[in-house]
Design brief:
Protein name: Phytanoyl-CoA dioxygenase family protein
Distance between the termini: 32 Å
Bound molecules: 2-oxoglutaric acid
Largest sheet: 7 strands, mixed
Strand order of the largest sheet: 1-10-5-12-2-14-15
GO molecular function, one term: iron ion binding
Oligomer: single chain
CATH topology: Jelly Rolls
Order of helices and strands: HEHHHEEEEEEEEEEEEEEHH
Organism: Roseicella aerolata
Cofactor: Fe(2+)
Keywords: Dioxygenase, Oxidoreductase
Number of helices: 6
CATH architecture: Sandwich
Radius of gyration: 17 Å
Strand content: 15-25%
Number of domains: 1
Number of strands: 15
Structural class: alpha+beta
CATH superfamily: q2cbj1_9rhob like domain
Length: 283
């Protein structure tokens, strides 16, 4: 379908590297999905699970385990907006449930999403959907407008348990924090950001958890440059390129078939991202 973004919004995305806020669903539906997250994805966050602040597995690619998450990544309001930016043939490459507990010290340092994804060309768009209020106080995503126009920048892995990224990837360049723009969202709203736009988020100082889903969409023409063949989910249009093995949607909540698809997909993704150099070395 597409044509949900105005010409001005598309122009703003190309110029600034993001567009926000956009509405996917009303607060009632966002509240239902919030309850689904609490039911399905809370266990892995307990301290005794040993997962720390890094993202445990039900929070990575949950759309392969849970029908409600499969519905979210296929939601027409999100896909229509993504289609306006990347065209009608769309894959979900990755998804992370970003759960910052109330008062948690967890934070996300300045980074570009493309750094270790190993995707070419850089046509990937991240949709960040809020399931709770995401405000400056609760540590919403903050972007540096226009930073995507400078290409892939060098990053270094930061070994800090508070960092919520898989490798602690942090841009090495000085970031002009005074130019940073917070992008607050209400439950059911989403933002779209370019894979190369610098973004970060601060600890949650609010009395409530801040929960959102970061969904990585790519047009089917994008390929992965690493040696490991990866899987992805076709959510709209046709895949005429065959760069990825296509993943099956879950039929029942975390049943054996869904768990097998999820484990296979994450296993391949981890193997690829551990070995992929920064994209600055690839492009
Ligand atoms: O949720 C956050 O605070 C960070 C999200 C992020 O880095 C992303 O979606 O790419």
């Amino acid at each position: 379908m597409g044509r949900i973004l105005s010409d001005d919004q598309v122009a703003a995305y190309r110029r600034d590297g993001y567009v926000s806020p956009l509405r996917a669903v009303d607060a009632v539906q966002a509240g239902r999905w919030h309850q689904d997250v609490l039911r399905c994805c809370a266990e892995a966050a307990r301290p005794e699970s040993g997962a720390g602040l890094r993202q445990p597995s039900t929070r990575v690619k949950p759309y392969l385990l849970f029908p409600w998450a499969a519905e979210i990544v296929r939601h027409p309001a999100i896909l229509d907006a993504v289609e306006d930016l990347v065209g009608p043939d769309i894959l979900v490459f990755h998804t992370t449930l970003w759960w910052k507990a109330a008062g948690s010290e967890g934070f996300v340092p300045w980074h570009q999403d493309g750094t270790y994804f190993g995707l070419a060309p850089h046509a990937h768009v991240t949709a960040w959907l809020a399931l709770t209020p995401s405000t400056e106080e609760s540590g919403c995503v903050t972007v540096l407008p226009g930073s995507h126009l400078h290409g892939q920048l060098p990053h270094a892995d930061r070994k800090d348990p508070r960092v919520m990224l898989s490798r602690g990837q942090t841009v090495t360049a000085e970031v002009e924090a005074a130019r940073a723009v917070p992008i607050p969202l209400s439950p059911g709203e989403f933002s779209l950001h370019d894979t190369l736009v610098l973004h970060a988020s601060a600890p949650n100082r609010a009395a409530h958890d801040r929960i959102g889903l970061g969904i990585s969409y790519i047009p089917t023409r994008v390929r992965h440059v690493g040696a490991t063949r990866l899987s992805a989910t076709l959510v709209r249009g046709e895949d005429r390129h065959g760069h990825f093995d296509l993943e099956a949607a879950p039929r029942a909540e975390a049943d054996a078939a869904a768990r097998a698809v999820h484990a296979d997909s994450i296993g391949r993704f981890r193997m690829a991202s551990e070995s992929i150099p920064e994209m600055s070395l690839v492009h």
